[in-house]
Automatic annotation (TrEMBL):
<feature type="domain" description="K Homology">
    <location>
        <begin position="270"/>
        <end position="338"/>
    </location>
</feature>
<protein>
    <recommendedName>
        <fullName>3'-5' exonuclease domain-containing protein</fullName>
    </recommendedName>
</protein>
<feature type="domain" description="3'-5' exonuclease">
    <location>
        <begin position="34"/>
        <end position="223"/>
    </location>
</feature>
<dbReference type="Pfam" id="PF01612">
    <property type="entry name" value="DNA_pol_A_exo1"/>
</dbReference>
<dbReference type="InterPro" id="IPR036397">
    <property type="entry name" value="RNaseH_sf"/>
</dbReference>
<dbReference type="InterPro" id="IPR002562">
    <property type="entry name" value="3'-5'_exonuclease_dom"/>
</dbReference>
<dbReference type="InterPro" id="IPR036612">
    <property type="entry name" value="KH_dom_type_1_sf"/>
</dbReference>
<dbReference type="Pfam" id="PF00013">
    <property type="entry name" value="KH_1"/>
</dbReference>
<keyword id="KW-0694">RNA-binding</keyword>
<dbReference type="GO" id="GO:0003723">
    <property type="term" value="F:RNA binding"/>
</dbReference>
<dbReference type="InterPro" id="IPR012337">
    <property type="entry name" value="RNaseH-like_sf"/>
</dbReference>
<dbReference type="GO" id="GO:0006139">
    <property type="term" value="P:nucleobase-containing compound metabolic process"/>
</dbReference>
<dbReference type="GO" id="GO:0008408">
    <property type="term" value="F:3'-5' exonuclease activity"/>
</dbReference>
<feature type="region of interest" description="Disordered">
    <location>
        <begin position="1"/>
        <end position="31"/>
    </location>
</feature>
<dbReference type="InterPro" id="IPR004087">
    <property type="entry name" value="KH_dom"/>
</dbReference>
<dbReference type="InterPro" id="IPR004088">
    <property type="entry name" value="KH_dom_type_1"/>
</dbReference>
């Protein structure tokens, strides 16, 4: 793979599953370099030029100031088996991020990420990038819980710190994440400062260096039905906050139901994203006092319901899931608006 023009001053470990039975978190394993990228030439050629002959799986995340459509993307992290790349959007600017566009939109490069909604929104509105072919570990975790017979409460989405702590996937404590969160609360522009501090480099790398290990652990467990749900929901998550005027006609298509799952009486239902406009002043009725109204709707429907919240958009509700459940949720939400 290509490397930085300067020798990397930072290194870390990228744990990978091993058939030898060794401990993948053993720090005696050779560390890999962390490259701070300000020019596209520092990135691997096979990443910049996606090819069906050289398909890749990379850990992926973004950091920024108020990361959403109106915020600022500051760093884009990429984890490979033999290196981590911190793509510096502040120093490299639009030219650097646009050089990554083919890879981020490619179906030949799988991006492993935890909760891609806001990252996708930032990439779409700030750079016109339609994030595609993600493996979202938050979605995968929920599917594995369902697959193993455990019921999940509404809004009970695993955090990245919680996922890392789960002994089935990593079983490690990520205490530095809380340190960075505290610094972000004190100074929201934390990720904008240059040069990158030791803490910034370490925290950015830590957000992606475990993802390839988690990916392999999860993919071994997911059955064919869950894999289809994972692909579909990942695509819908990427679109979630990326509202456009053409109903996503220029986005990659949603993966169809595979023929081997089209079993009479047991075929999965098509899944969709529906965006509901909320008239001004009505959002309070939709949510209800202390969230009681929206919680009752979520408990009645097997669909995910998301709000833009403080980052916006403030006047819309995003509903994802099986067609009938999405329509049921939308009808109940409209009823709340009419009350």
């Amino acid at each position: 793979m290509a490397s930085s023009n300067h020798p990397p001053s930072h290194r870390t470990h990228v744990p990978l599953p091993s058939d030898s039975g060794g401990n993948p978190f053993d720090d005696e394993a050779p560390p890999v370099p962390i490259h701070i990228v300000t020019n596209a030439s520092q990135l691997p050629a096979e990443f910049l030029n996606p090819s069906p002959e050289k398909q890749l799986v990379v850990g992926f995340d973004c950091e920024g100031v108020d990361l959403c459509r109106n915020g600022t993307l500051c760093i884009m992290q990429l984890a490979f088996q033999d290196a981590i790349y911190l793509v510096d959007a502040i120093e490299g600017g639009e030219v650097l991020i646009n050089a990554c566009k083919p890879a981020l939109e490619s179906s030949y490069i799988k991006k492993v990420i935890h909760d891609c909604k806001r990252d996708s929104e930032a990439l779409y509105f700030q750079f016109g990038i339609k994030l595609n072919n993600v493996m979202d570990t938050q979605i995968a975790y929920s599917l594995l819980e369902e697959q193993e017979g455990r019921t999940r409460l509404p809004d009970d989405n695993i955090s990245f710190v919680g996922l890392l702590a789960d002994p089935r996937y990593c079983g490690i404590s990520y205490q530095e994440k809380e340190e960075v969160r505290l610094l972000l609360r004190q100074d929201p522009k934390f990720w904008k400062y240059r040069p990158l501090s030791e803490l910034m480099v370490r925290a950015a790398a830590d957000d992606v260096r475990f993802l390839l290990y988690i990916y392999h652990m999860m993919m071994k467990k997911l059955n064919e039905r869950s894999l289809w749900h994972l692909a579909v929901r990942g695509a819908l998550y990427c679109r979630c906050f990326c509202i456009n005027d053409n109903n996503y006609a220029d986005w990659p298509s949603i993966p169809p139901i595979p023929d081997n799952l089209m079993v009479e009486g047991d075929a999965p239902e098509e899944e969709i994203l529906s965006i509901l406009d909320v008239p001004q002043g009505k959002m309070g009725r939709v949510i209800g006092r202390k969230g009681v109204s929206i919680l009752s709707i979520k408990e009645s429907c097997n669909a995910e319901i998301h709000f833009g919240g403080a980052k916006g958009p403030p006047d819309k509700v995003f509903i994802l899931g099986p067609v009938r459940q999405v329509r049921k949720a939308a009808a109940m939400l409209r009823g709340r608006m009419m009350d």
